[in-house]
Amino acid sequence: MSDKRAWWKEAVIYQIYPRSFADSNGDGIGDLNGIIGKLDYVKKLGADVIWLNPIYKSPNDDNGYDIADYRDIMTEFGTMADFDRLLAEAHIRGLRIVMDLVVNHTSDENAWFIESRKSKDNPYRDFYIWKDPKNVSEGDTADRSDPKWQDEHAPNNWESCFSGSAWQYDQTTGQYYLHCFSKKQPDLNWENPKVRDEVFDMMNWWCQKGIDGFRMDVISMISKVQSYPDGKVNDGVYGDLNPYVCNGPHVHEYLQEMNRRVLSKYDIMTVGEAAGVTLEQATHYANNDGAELGMVFHFEHTDGGQNSDAMIGKWSVNPPKLSYIRSTLNKWQTGLEGKAWGSLYWDNHDQPRAVSRFGNDSPEWRVRSAKMIATCLHFQKGTPYVYQGEEIGMTNMHFSSVEDCNDIEERNAYRQYVTEQHMISSEDMLRCFDHVGRDNARTPMQWNDGPQAGFTTGTPWFTVNPNYREINVEQALADPDSVFYYYQKLIALRHKLPVMVYGKFIPLLEDSDSIYAYRRVLDEEGAGKQTITVACNWTDQKVPCSLFDDLQGEELITNVDSHEKGFLLPYEARAILS
Ligand code: TEU
Ligand code: CA
Q: Which of 5, 138, 332, 435 lies deepest, with the highest CB count within 10 Å?
């Protein structure tokens, strides 16, 4: 076997977005005590690890991805004592806790930035990326508070991921700072060794508390091309500017330094969010040599623009195509083999709901198709991630007005494309939000059919999806055929069968218009050869399939009551061990 065994390769991760998970004190905002109250639920599902979206002190411009204090807890979420209790209670149950590490940028309310913006010679000035205005002639007396002037003199034409220029002019010192995300998220200057010292100290501090790993936010973006050249206009940091921001000149050097100074000292897992990272590059970030990270999240199968003919940027109403999803995932499966470990996900807090996007969320097919896509993903090679609510088949949300949206990405995109540039109608933009907006994933967790879906006794910070009366945890736990018990079974199978973890991935039926099929094969000394054959029908039609006709073996899992020889029923999924 070429893969070295590791607990995090055999684990299944459950992702919690704390703000929307469970509210313990009736203020309408999910919190740490709420999570503690639901640990047994996560345990019942069978997951091994909980990844918490950011819980640090933050003004919440981007719901916690703008950190004001890395060593303190967000006031609404609780206290450090609550966190210590959460960690202890998780460990008692054999659950591990992975923290979100957001170190490409901080909040503009972080003490480092408050200092940095004070003066050009402040000791913290170089913690961030400051540049002079461009093309200013000597003796220029123009009014620099004029947004138009600021726009015209920005250091280069880079666009923020959240719309508009990636540069913000700061009156105090007459320079601009870089922000790849919102203007309240200034980018840290990783070229400065003092920044790295502070970040590594902070990481060691959390590791010494006993946390079990880090999910590293946009870690591929920490090293920028130092000449800060213009990119092609209007392409955002992920478009043609990608070469200047993603996978920059020193990113691997810095991650190796992080590995030496922090990661290698603890038995922790790491997953890098690898925005703009190709398969070849991923084999460096997550190489089996262990010099950098354990694994990465890649974006190729979820990048709206690529898989569904987007209208503007990621904004689209078109369903993803099976042929694209399959060829992309297969490419990563086979490309990582023997070189690096991968991660598996359909959704997260930045993506629409899995069943709405990849399955079929109509009442007729929701449950069966949710099980189908789960089967399709969980038998692949890599560490699977389940995003809160995915395990009960929660669906996308409909928003009828931009006022009802919370996400800064959505609100800024609306302002730019609808209000300012008239590139798309309000109605069409809102339909795009319904399909791919991040708010879909951020509505409160649906626990029961009582008021506010059991998420809070107060007024929830964000609208509950009205379908909570049918789709909720209580219902799922009472129904042996629910999506929940199917996920429970998939997770249990992964724990039981080494072939599901370490087996080699072999694509099948790569030209099919409707079926995603593959094998996993493990030939272990002493244990003999084990093969799992998986086939999933991605359509609402019965389709011919002869894969199982002459296959002898044990059916590990299926989502239909009975099979029809020579066919797969609509959204049927099957896995056979032989
Ligand atoms: O996401 C970065 C990222 O590359 C995208 O998913 C991005 O958020 C955008 O939605 C693409 O359309 C990470 C976090 O997961 C996200 O929640 C944060 O907003 C972002 O970084 C900034 O910290
Ligand atoms: Ca609360």
A: 332
